[in-house]
Write a structure and sequence with these properties.
Layout (H helix, E strand, L loop, with lengths): L5 E7 L2 E7 L3 E5 L6 E6 L26 H8 L2 H7 L5 E4 L8 H5 L14 E7 L3 E10 L4 E10 L4 E10 L5 E3 L2 E6 L9 E5 L1 E6 L15 E3 L2 E3 L5 E3 L10 E8 L5 E8 L4 E8 L5 E8 L12 E8 L7 H6 L10 E3 L4 E12 L7 E6 L3 E6 L5 E5 L10
Helix pairs in contact: 1-2
Amino acid sequence: MTKQHACLKTQWNGREAYTLQNDLVQMVTLPGGGHIAEFQFLASTGLPVLNPLWVPPWKTMEPYQYRAEKDAAVYGPVNEGKLLSGIAGHNICLDYFGPPSEEEAAQGLSTHGEAPSAKWQKTKLHTTSQEVSLTLAVRLPVAGLRFSREIRLRRGESVAYFAETVFNERKADHFFHWTQHVTLSPPFLGNDTSRIAISATRGRTHPGGYGGNELLVSGRNFHWPFAPGRSGKSIDLTRPFERQGLGFVVSLLLNPRRQVQYVAALNLPHRLLVGYCFRTSDFPWVAIWEENQSRAAAPWNASAQTRGLEFGSTPSPVTRREAFAVSPLLNTPTFSIVPAKGKTAASYLSFLAQVPEDFGVVRDIQVAKSDILVQGSGRRSSLQLPAAGLAEYGWA
């Protein structure tokens, strides 16, 4: 193992962190909630070092240390404040996707389940001359689950491989939600400077609006990427931050004819692409959440710009009761299952790349035997990224 191929215990904005790096990229993950806070090229590569992932404009803390009596004034009440106190970048939603019920909040539960607010533990660190991997795990006592996530980087690849497992500690089958809440923000994202790409088909705008600050008409079906705007014109959802002071949530059904799906975002000035690939059988839905300086309450203070590309087993961030009341949707399941005293697993990957000049925008992303293939719309429209780890996860 060289100095450029390591997993180091570090600090991120005053919080405990682990930094994985190979010869091309580094990724920062936080034991406080398991959030992925950074994914970027190393400066030594000469490639853009912009971090696409959201760093909140407020100072975060370890979410498992949140106490409503002293922290609610800064981060909000427990139903969302516990999550917001520690949120960053890519977080996991488990075992539900959305807010808790009033009764659940009274028991100390917060938005998106126990996992993104709990303390995760390192259970394994593995290094060789060709790769480095870190496994963090967390126990979810209310749900009766255990969860583990392995992150692996291979030498010579700008790809991060994720392998996740949910263990059921109880003697009954468990129905749950499993969503990767990937959140991007400026300076990577901008209305004129970036474009979003998703292997989506149909969509539906959130029936509950957006707290009176809706960019889109509520409860309306549409075909990706054009959604009905409240102004009367169609909104191109490939362009973030259409109108300051407004936000939205939409649910997207991914293309059921594909075995592997993708979400991606391209920064045009830097030609920097970030993407995720995952199996349809694991995560058939994407929820898009956009906050464009509309939420005035603490800790938002009308200062945040974010675009969430949230791929998972359920389409909408609503209470557990609401979610299970509408299942299935568009002939597609809206939850995951882990059998009694059993386990279920999923794998996916994230990647960075600098696309060629005259690449245009992303038209398609495929995985091959040992490569990620990205197709653009411009004259130099093909990009091939090495990804030899695909075979290890049974993708090839």
